[in-house]
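Retro notes (design track)

What went well: tokenization of the new backbones is finally stable.
What didn't: we kept losing track of which sequence belonged to which structure.
Fix going forward: every design gets posted as structure first, then sequence, in one message. First example under the new rule, 349 residues:
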């Protein structure tokens, strides 16, 4: 039984698509300065390409997207002599409220909004041939007592790139590290890290029925020091599009107190204009080194003409019978199996 956009039993799938109509964006925009945009008001803020918004995003998989009441400035410098693209990009936002996906009418505190006094800062440097660099600082200050456990300072650096090996082959690589500590009125003592390593290869067949095949292996860790007095001391990303990470069954939207280590592989195939993706995850805890479980994720999407897209999506989480997993994670759902299946149609104009 679903209530207020959430299920009442951790055994079952989370339902977070409430009924309602809201204003998603309403802001003033000024572009009178060279290569600079100023925005004030309700807006979407997306860091990195959709849907991989690890820290800041609009959670576009849901019916009701996440938005921010904020003042934001983006600017860029140093044009490339060949392409004219700006190589240095700066993005800063002061945010006083997050409009959450659970709807404005949700009666549970912190479900409808995250009142805050937070700072988002990101810098991108695209001036190197083999790697694109990104640095970021997220200083999150949540107002309410329920959400103060997410008040943190996060500082990180990411590099990603691709190298062609002839006309058809390409190798892919990504590395990232971040540190997160408690800040402001957070009652927990948090001192944890995040790191990611990815390597893959793509081959372009160039056929109508088989265009490109990409295979990638990844290892992502969100550290955790356990749970003390009911407060988890793990690396958290409360404003990201978390459905895109740690499996589409959504067992890890909030990082468990023992943290998570996710070893996973990805196969992506394109052909006839359609895209097929298969992923396999092996989840384990960072603290005390026990198994959460494994998960298969499958999706197939096909655009139809100019405005339509149809898709099928499947997720199968197989929980581990490990004694620590069963004892510690029944409330968070990681101790229970879960299968989800979606059929969806998208229209854009």
């Amino acid at each position: 039984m679903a209530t207020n956009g959430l299920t009442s039993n951790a055994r079952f799938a989370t339902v977070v698509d409430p009924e309602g109509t809201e204003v998603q964006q309403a802001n003033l925009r000024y572009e009178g300065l060279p290569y600079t945009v100023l925005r004030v008001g309700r807006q979407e803020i997306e860091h990195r390409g959709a849907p991989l918004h690890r820290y800041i995003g609009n959670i576009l998989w849901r019916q009701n997207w996440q938005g921010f009441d904020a003042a934001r400035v983006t600017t860029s410098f140093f044009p490339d002599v060949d392409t004219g693209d700006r190589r240095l990009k700066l993005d800063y936002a002061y945010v006083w409220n997050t409009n959450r996906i659970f709807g404005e009418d949700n009666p549970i505190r912190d479900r409808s909004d995250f009142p805050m006094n937070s700072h988002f800062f990101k810098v991108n440097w695209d001036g190197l041939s083999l790697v694109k660099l990104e640095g970021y600082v997220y200083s999150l200050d949540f107002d309410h007592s329920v959400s103060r456990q997410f008040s943190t300072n996060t500082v990180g650096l990411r590099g990603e790139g691709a190298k062609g090996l002839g006309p058809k082959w390409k190798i892919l690589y990504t590395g990232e590290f971040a540190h997160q500590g408690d800040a402001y009125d957070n009652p927990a003592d948090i001192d944890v890290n995040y790191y990611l390593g990815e390597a893959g290869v793509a081959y372009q067949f160039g056929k109508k029925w088989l265009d490109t095949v990409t295979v990638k292996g990844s290892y992502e860790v969100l550290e955790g020091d356990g749970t003390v007095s009911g407060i988890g001391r793990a690396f958290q990303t409360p404003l990201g599009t978390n459905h895109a990470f740690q499996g589409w069954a959504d067992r890890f939207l909030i990082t468990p107190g023992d943290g998570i280590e996710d070893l996973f592989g990805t196969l992506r195939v394109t052909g006839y204009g359609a895209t097929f993706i298969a992923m396999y995850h092996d989840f384990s805890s960072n603290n005390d080194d026990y198994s959460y479980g494994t998960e298969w994720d499958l999706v197939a999407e096909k655009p139809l003409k100019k405005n339509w897209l149809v898709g099928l999506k499947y997720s199968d989480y197989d929980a581990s019978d490990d004694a620590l997993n069963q004892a510690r994670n029944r409330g968070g759902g990681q101790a229970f199996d879960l299968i989800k299946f979606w059929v969806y149609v998208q229209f854009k104009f």
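Added context from the reviewer: The chain has one domain: 2-347.
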